[in-house]
Design brief:
- The protein is α/β, with parallel strands linked by helices.
- The protein has one domain: NAD(P)-binding Rossmann-like Domain (Rossmann fold).
- Helices cover 46% and strands 13% of the residues.
- It is built from 9 helices and 7 strands, in the order βαβαβαβαβααβαααβ.
- Strands 3-2-1-4-5-6-7 form a 7-stranded parallel sheet, sandwiched between helices.
């Protein structure tokens, strides 16, 4: 199969990092399934931007936290474009709070999406991803920083890294690479929500480059791992954080 005919699924791709990943993969020749759970307009914009540059994309609504969510994405991809070559597990949610004050609902929501969505994506890929394909899941550099209020979120992302290392060994005989990308602070709506300007400036100062990351910074790392130059890299977590840790 040629590079131009490969198909990719990107979960949570209506905006931010997910949208940037979808566009970068399309630039590399992938037909892209742009998944969204709530932001239909954002997903449509991502698709239109891809099509405007000559790429192929469709938007598919599904909740990756639900048991049938990932199967629906693979069904749509196969029906529209053919067998799936790359899966990017990007969908996620972050609810910050001290562990001793975290509500059950916030804990369960983060586990259902951040762990459950990745688990179901990997499980579906085990049966349906092409041999020689690639899986990239999003972790976070809070795994390593271990800051207060990030306890549950960091725990869910540590689980993503554990599944990545194990799944790489399980799918290695099929030539499938399985990796994770762990962004540091990235200037997105997801990250900036509720943060005062003074806090953002302090976060920037933590980084040797003195700035926040951009969605394109992360998209480049994902595209590398999902592309032909990343074929000898598997079972790894790439900390794309500008040297903050």
């Amino acid at each position: 199969m040629t590079q131009q005919s490969q198909t990719a699924i990107v979960t949570g791709a209506s905006k931010g990092i997910g949208a940037a990943i979808a566009q970068r993969l399309a630039q590399g020749g992938h037909a892209v399934v742009v998944n969204y759970a709530r932001d239909e307009a954002g997903a449509a914009q991502t698709v239109e931007r891809i099509k405007a540059t000559g790429g192929k994309a469709i938007a598919v609504h599904t909740d990756v936290a639900k048991p049938a969510g990932m199967a629906r994405l693979f069904d749509a991809a196969e029906q529209e474009f053919g067998p799936v070559h790359a899966l990017v597990n990007n969908a996620g949610v972050m609810r910050l709070g001290l562990l001793g004050e975290t509500a059950d609902a916030d804990f369960e929501t983060q586990c259902a999406i951040n762990i459950g969505g990745v688990f179901r994506g990997m499980r579906e890929a085990a049966a349906r991803l092409q041999d020689g394909g690639a899986i990239v899941s999003m972790s976070s550099s809070v795994v390593g920083l271990y800051q207060p209020t990030y306890g549950v979120y960091a725990a869910t992302k540590a689980a993503v890294e554990a599944m990545t290392h194990v799944f790489a060994k399980e799918l290695g005989p099929r030539g499938v690479t399985v990796n994770a990308v762990a962004p540091g602070p990235v200037e997105t709506e997801f990250f900036m929500a509720g943060k005062p300007e003074a806090l953002v400036e302090n976060i920037k100062k933590m980084n040797p480059f003195g700035r926040l990351g951009t969605p394109d910074d992360i998209a480049g790392a994902v595209a590398f791992l999902a592309g032909p130059d990343g074929r000898w890299i598997s079972g790894q977590t790439l900390r794309a954080n500008g040297g903050v840790i």
